[in-house]
Amino acid sequence: QVQLQESGPGLVKPSQTLSLTCTVSGGSISSGGYYWSWIRQHPGKGLEWIGYIYYSGSTYYNPSLKSRVTISVDTSKNQFSLKLSSVTAADTAVYYCAREGIVGATSDYWGQGTLVTVSS
Amino acid sequence: QSALTQPASVSGSPGQSITISCTGTSSDVGGYNYVSWYQQHPGKAPKLMIYEVSNRPSGVPDRFSGSKSGNTASLTISGLQAEDEADYYCSSYTSSSTHVVFGGGTKLTVL
């Protein structure tokens, strides 16, 4: 059973960089066949796809966030990470990491989510 | 505003059936059989219930079914149970640069 767990600061100051890490267990990122994604959910709102990374390091980002997003992978630790720069209050959300199939954009395993609040 | 349109809320009594619609365009729902449905209980992560329009992952009850006609996908839950009360989100692969789009979510109330 694949499990994902987000970690990182729950409070970030405006204009700073939000940094989160997702640790994967029960499966290897390096085995291929899946994208590793970040998705966020603003309080009381719907879901927004942020971007994904493949084990090789190939990435694809939501154009609306592309200028501020970096997703990286550390296969030796079976982790992937999200950095979102120049944050504002509008970036306050629950951030989820997820495993996404190569075909079909379906996320079959999700982390529990972590609330990140942007506030001074 | 979400890319896919869902009703804000639906309700039904235990044992009844309900259907949640998800309307997109020919660039997403109508163009590909890559519609997924997720169930989300308060404070929890989304759980995959349906993928590729009508396929159920292992462990999902067969009370949950999916279908698609044109640019509209649907999730049907039959034999409603109290534990089905949750928010439901549809998603679809899209040929646009956003890769995947979500619906705004539907709150299911079991009366």
SSE topology sketch:
The complex is a heterodimer of chains A (120) and B (111).
Chain A: E1 3-7, E2 11-12, E3 18-25, E4 34-41, E5 47-53, E6 59-61, E7 69-74, E8 79-84, E9 93-101, E10 107-110, E11 114-118
Parallel strand pairs in A: 2-11
Antiparallel strand pairs in A: 1-3, 3-8, 4-5, 4-9, 5-6, 7-8, 9-10, 9-11
Chain B: E1 9-12, E2 18-23, E3 35-40, E4 47-50, E5 64-69, E6 72-77, E7 86-93, E8 100-102, E9 106-110
Parallel strand pairs in B: 1-9
Antiparallel strand pairs in B: 2-6, 3-4, 3-7, 5-6, 7-8, 7-9
Q: Can you summarize this structure?
A:
The complex is a heterodimer of chains A (120) and B (111). With 120 residues, chain A is mostly beta strands.
Radius of gyration of chain B: 13 Å
Q: Helices and strands of chain B, in N-to-C order?
A: EEEEEEEEE
- Number-wise, the strands of chain A total 11
Helix content of chain B: under 10%
Morphology of chain B: globular
Largest beta sheet of chain A, briefly? Answer: 7 strands, mixed
Strand content of chain A: over 45%
Q: Could you list the spans of chain A in which at least 5 consecutive residues all have pLDDT below 50?
A: none
User: Could you tell me the number of beta strands of chain B?
Assistant: 9
Rg of chain A, rounded, reads 13 Å
Structural class of chain B: mainly beta
N-to-C order of helices and strands of chain A = EEEEEEEEEEE
Query: Helical proportion of chain A?
Result: under 10%
* Strand residues, percent of chain B: 35-45%
Count of helical segments of chain B? 0
Instruction: Compute the separation of the termini of chain B in Å.
Output: 28 Å
What does the oligomeric state look like here? heterodimer
Number of helices of chain A: 0
The overall pLDDT of chain B, averaged over residues, is 96
Task: Sum up the overall morphology of chain A in one term.
Answer: globular
Low-confidence stretches of chain B: none
What does this molecule look like?
The complex is a heterodimer of chains A (120) and B (111). Chain A is mostly beta strands and 120 residues long. Chain A has no helices and eleven strands. Chain A has strands at 3-7, 11-12, 18-25, 34-41, 47-53, 59-61, 69-74, 79-84, 93-101, 107-110, 114-118. In chain A, the strands form two sheets. In chain A, strands 2, 4, 5, 6, 9, 10 and 11 form a seven-stranded mixed sheet that branches. In chain A, strands 1-3-8-7 form a four-stranded antiparallel sheet, with no helix packed on it. In chain A, a hairpin with a 5-residue loop joins β4 and β5 (47-53). Chain A is globular, with a radius of gyration of 13 Å. In chain B, the strands form two sheets. In chain B, strands 1, 3, 4, 7, 8 and 9 form a six-stranded mixed sheet that branches. Chain B has a three-stranded antiparallel sheet with strand order 2-6-5, with no helix packed on it. The radius of gyration of chain B is 13 Å and the shape is globular. By secondary structure, chain B is an all-beta fold. Chain B has strands spanning 9-12, 18-23, 35-40, 47-50, 64-69, 72-77, 86-93, 100-102, 106-110. Classes of the chains: A mainly beta (120), B mainly beta (111). The A-B interface holds A 45-49, 52, 60, 62-64, 96, 101, 103-108, 110-113 and B 2, 34, 36, 38, 44-48, 51-52, 57, 89, 91-94, 97-105.
